[in-house]
Design brief:
single chain, about 500 residues, alpha/beta, Rossmann fold, Helicase, Ruva Protein, domain 3, 3 domains, 5-stranded parallel beta sheet, 3-stranded antiparallel beta sheet, 25 helices, about 10% strand
């Protein structure tokens, strides 16, 4: 079809034009019948968001994707182009992607009237049929819809009553395309009002011109629920004109969240080959995000983006890689202590409420990591709290006894692998506890050391042993010894753990 260059040839080929909503609908139907995946790389929405989007497309609706930040709204919108025909014909030189069979612009109508079947046509790929605009305070009606262009009028010596003096905005130029407006509530109310006719009637009005340009556009809007109260709102008549409002959400399970992080994290081949990351640490990073979404210090209305875990995982790998390079090693594995390196990623991805601001971003981040360790620990090992209530013999007692004998260990962030393992091996009771926990499960030697270190951090989070942060690492000691030591240094109980 791409070899067809004129309107006459297009007619002879039997090509039939479609409205964009019919185009999306027909291609979706084909994919559903073939059981093909509709949205590549979108994880966790298979039974919720994607079916809603498919129903909206089948209903030929414009849609609004409503959800907190980092919920793949824009990515979904961009992938909608995959449901368009690969190529469509347009009148050559047209600003509005005019359909050769149904031109809507003055330019295209005049050209078809003059040249008839000799009207030149060109083909545009579906990738070119996508336009996106972020709603910002400086967006104007002229940007979106159009305005009179005095320079064009002067150059062409046209009267201001001639519609050829119009400079079309982004929306008319997106005729026969998918047009996305991100963060719709941030668009000024008067601009939202300007969209009424376009959504309902499919036409535009510019500076009082008596125009009827029946635009053919699939509109996709994105919005954050927080915007409805904090920065702006979607005016009711506009919301009424949007066919489907689809609610997005964060991953509902650790496994789904982990899949997203591993898919999106930018870890290069060299890092993958030199830094081993156990499944336990991958899980803990996801658990941090789940803890943040429930934290009293984090603004739940703002949300906790999936980008938190992606950035945190990248930082974790980099922390292990940096240690490896400084120690002149060729390979290493991520440790629980390396989670200290993800604090910077957490700080940039959460909005704190007043209490959180008082606590301090760094302390909140450390607290979230601590809660993740504490809550995940009891899914792998016996819950120390329950053991105490039931007055059962604790499997952790040999470890506590070792620390009670005035023993302590320092796990430094920069320790090479040999030093780290020697430090962990100084507590014999850890080995037996890990072996009992994993049973016959197949885990690497490095993973065993991560589990041993994990136990130490978890016991500290459950207030069974003392833990304090050093300038270059972490120290574990007897709980009472840690309390007395911290009091000697002038620290209060709130500084512990």
């Amino acid at each position: 079809m791409k070899n067809i260059k004129t309107l006459g040839e297009l007619k002879k080929s039997g090509y039939k034009s479609k409205k964009i909503k019919d185009e999306l609908r027909d291609n979706l139907i084909l994919k559903l019948k073939r059981k093909e995946r509709i949205f590549e790389g979108i994880v966790g929405f298979e039974d919720t968001v994607i079916p809603d989007i498919e129903r909206a497309i089948l209903s030929r609706h414009n849609m609004n994707l409503l959800g907190l930040r980092g919920q793949a709204k824009t990515r979904i919108a961009r992938q909608m182009t995959e449901l368009l025909d690969e190529y469509i014909p347009v009148v050559a030189g047209s600003e509005l992607n005019d359909d050769p069979f149904e031109p809507i612009s003055r330019f295209a109508k005049d050209l078809v009237a003059t040249k008839g079947d000799e009207t030149p046509i060109e083909w545009i790929h579906r990738i070119e049929r996508y336009a996106e605009k972020l709603a910002t305070p400086d967006v104007s009606v002229a940007d979106l819809i159009g305005d009179v262009d005095p320079i064009k009028a002067a150059n062409l010596k046209l009267n201001y009553a001639d519609e050829r003096v119009i400079h079309f905005g982004m929306i008319p130029r997106s005729n026969r395309c998918i047009f996305v407006i991100n963060e719709l509530p941030d668009l000024q109310a008067r601009l939202q009002v300007a969209l009424f006719n376009i959504l309902q009637e499919g036409d535009i009005q510019i500076r009082g011109f008596k125009l009827r340009i029946p635009l053919d556009i699939e509109f996709i809007f994105t919005a954050n629920p927080e915007d409805y109260t904090n920065r702006g709102s979607i005016v009711t008549p506009l919301k009424d004109r949007i066919g489907s409002q689809i609610l997005t959400h964060y991953p509902k399970s650790i496994a789904t969240s982990k899949d997203i992080t591993q898919q999106e994290a930018r870890i290069n081949t060299a890092q993958k080959e030199t830094v081993e990351v156990s499944d336990l640490i991958k899980t803990l990073i996801e658990q941090v995000a789940f803890e943040a979404r429930q934290s009293e210090f984090v603004d739940s209305k703002s949300g906790v983006s999936a980008r938190l875990t992606i950035s945190a995982y990248e930082n974790l790998v980099s922390a292990a890689e940096r240690r490896m390079l400084l120690n002149g090693e060729t390979k290493t594995f991520a440790r629980i202590a390396d989670l200290a390196g993800i604090v910077a990623a957490i700080n940039g991805k959460i909005e704190l409420v007043y209490e959180g601001e008082q606590e301090g971003a760094g302390m909140v981040a450390q607290g979230l990591i601590g809660k993740a360790i504490r809550n995940h620990f009891i899914t792998l090992f016996p819950d120390p709290g329950k053991l105490k209530k039931k007055k059962q013999v604790s499997p952790y007692q040999p470890i506590l006894d070792w620390f009670a004998e005035n023993n302590e260990i320092d796990i430094l962030f920069g320790d090479d692998e040999k030093t780290f393992k020697k430090t962990i091996d100084s507590i014999p009771a850890l080995d037996r506890l890990v072996n009992e926990a994993i049973g016959k499960s197949s885990v690497s030697a490095n993973e065993k050391y991560v589990l041993k270190e994990f136990i130490l951090h978890a016991l500290a989070e459950h207030s069974l042993i003392g833990k304090s942060y050093l300038e270059r690492g972490i120290q574990f000691k007897d709980l009472f010894g840690a309390v007395f030591s911290s009091k000697d240094m002038g620290l209060g109980e709130e500084d512990l753990n």
